[in-house]
Amino acid sequence: MTGLSLYALTGAVLVGFGIYGLLAKRHLLRRVIAFNLIGSGLFVFFGASAARGETVDPVPQALIITGIVVALSASALAVGLIVAKARVSGRALLPEEDDDA
Amino acid sequence: MTLLLDAVLCVLLLGTALAAVLGRGVFRAIVFFIVYGLLLSVGWVRLEAVNVALAEAAIGAGLTGILLLTTYGKLTRVSAEAEPDDAGVNLPVALVSVAVAGALAWAWSVLPEPTRPRAELAEALPRAGVENPVTAVLLSFRAWDTLLESVVLLAALIGLWLLGRDEDWQQRLGVPQHARPGGIMTSFGRVLPPVGFLVGVYLVFIGADEPGGAFQGGTVLAAVGLVAALAGLIQPPRIGQWQWHAGLVLGPLVFLLAGVAGALSDSGFLGYPEAIAGTAILVIEAALAASIAVTLAFLVIGPPEKGHRE
Fold first, then answer.
1. B37-86 residue pLDDT tens
2. What ipTM did this prediction achieve?
3. Which of A22, B132, B225, B288 would you call most buried, defined as having the most Cβ atoms within 10 angstroms of its Cβ?
4. Distance separating the N- and C-terminal Cα atoms of chain B
5. B118 touches chain A (CB under 8 A)
6. Cα atoms in the 13 Å half-sphere on the side-chain side of A90
7. Does A75 touch chain B (CB under 8 A)?
8. Distance (Å, whole) CA A69 – CA A56
9. Other CB atoms within 10 A of residue A84 CB
């Protein structure tokens, strides 16, 4: 197994971890972290595919940088919504998943 | 030997990611996620993507880390940081995760070999005006993506500001920070910004030819402002100040005007005449970096809140 396959498989497993966290964990901040893990895992997978062959392909790298920046702005909006939700209800959980509500 | 290094790095990445998903308590999850981001930037160097490594360290680990930690602080104030008990394994979700990860692994095994050499790129690169191929892609070949991305940042900021409470609208941005005079944070707040400012400007400038660029440099500049604000050395601005509005739109505006100028000459929209391509890209990058710095800092610091000292 080459180093690149190692990173690609790591990326695949990271996506798996992220999906588990996004669906199985209820605290919304934890879900934002999990969502970032999914994106990050896909970037690693994509980046490993860009590094195959003799020279590295710069196009995927540029797209990954764009992706990292967009992920941050989406996360900032998401945590803004979480804080607003928590101030109204006192809980950072979705109402239909909140056992104590 | 290098394979061993890669293997250890991948195990550490998976370990910290798993701790961020399953570890007890949201605070611990955030800390592990920051460590994960720093490890991943080492991974990007191993994947020969130094430009991405800089972006990951600055944005993925740095700014996202501050964002998550300040959010945790805000949630603690309304005691919403506690997590319900999700300790048991959710079997259906675990199966879905394994299936998606397995499908990706399978996709990797059947991915076709890339066609070499990429003749079009090799032929176009000398005419782009910059040596760094990633910068050439971002600012020239796929400039549309980058232009729209800078608008996405603005849209996210407007969305975030709309979440501010009506009675706080006239207040300064973010929660008020109180740092002990002479404490660690205040000292850091004085030492780091000058160094960070230099590094940020250098990254923007060198990005034309070496790893770096508007996003990495702009993020470092945003971090400089955030450190100074967290140390209580500068007061964050208010929403209504026109100078900051100008800072927010400067980058997208210069980018757009350069694109229109290209369309009016015969280079086409977002194309630059070969003779001035290098200069044009540097000017756009400088304006973009300034706007990225302001936008990212505002995104991380959050909507206006009451309680600031005047």
1. 999 999 999 998 999 999 999 998 999 999 999 999 999 998 888 888 77
2. 0.95
3. B288
4. 58
5. yes
6. 3
7. yes
8. 21
9. 17
Domains of chain A: 3-97 (1.10.287.3510)
CA distance B140 to chain A (A): 11
Q: Pick the residue from chain B with its C-alpha nearest to A39.
A: B60
> Do the Cβ atoms of B14 and A13 come closer than 8 Å?
yes
CA B175 to each of CA B16, B168, B172: distance values in angstroms, whole numbers, following the listed order? 29, 11, 8
Per-residue model confidence as pLDDT tens digits over B271-281: 888 888 888 89
How far off is chain A from B189, nearest CA to CA, in Å? 23
Tabulate helix, strand, coil % of chain A (nearest 5).
80, 0, 20
Reference B21, options B72, B71, B89; nearest CA is: B89
How many Å is the maximal CA-CA distance in chain A?
58
Comparing CA positions, the residue from B23, B36, B62 lying closest to residue B300 is B62
